[in-house]
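Submission checklist for the structure archive. All mandatory fields must be present; incomplete records are returned to the submitter.

[x] Identifier: Alpha/beta hydrolase
[x] Organism: Mesorhizobium neociceri
[x] Residue count: 236
[x] Sequence attached
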Amino acid sequence: MSNNTANSVVLVHGGFVDGSGWDGVYQILKKDGYDVTIVQNPTTSLADDVAFTNRAIAEAKSNVILVGHSYGGIVVSEAGTDPKVAGVVYIAAFAGDAGESVATLIANPPPGASVPPILPPVDGFLMLDKDKFAASFAADVRPSLAAFMADSQVPWGIPALEGKVTAPAWKVKPSWYLVASDDKMIPPPAQRQMATRAGATTVEVPGSHAVYVSDPAAVAKLIEQAAAGVAKKRAA
């Protein structure tokens, strides 16, 4: 990893979960010498989550590879224009364009697509049906951990769901995208379309929406490829 100018990685989780799901990815990146920060974004509003992410970027020791999963893709699209961000990585994520939010991107699912088991809002927050969480979000995660994820859900604020990107990072920063081909939350065709639109270097792996938990090696590999790609571009 010598001569790597983007030595810091900032990991941003999505809706319904917290940063602990990044543990496997974190362990690999740390072992390989990266400085890693996991953002515990509150998922209350896009503005709040971007503010939490910006603080993590500011505290990073070097230029940053900014990584977002699911709704975290909206957060990193908005926060990733920070000058310290060298590249953006989307993991089964919403790569929103200007004026888009998770709400707009999921408004018209393709025919036959799985419908996430989101319960009606309570006090302005959304949750997934605990009984359907594993099948929809984490089908390839070991059952005991999937059950823990279901029971430790973080309520997802409607202002976060509806928060719109203003100027997407992928238009001005190199980007990478990991498509999870067995995803039941964001249809894989939608992931491929967003990756293509972003001009992202794209890999596809078998995996559920929680691919960052079930296959941390594949996720860490793409993040490290992004760091190496950024270093190469800077050296050229």
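[x] Structure attached
Curator remark: The chain has a mean pLDDT of 95. Residues 8-235 form a domain with the Rossmann fold fold (CATH 3.40.50.1820).
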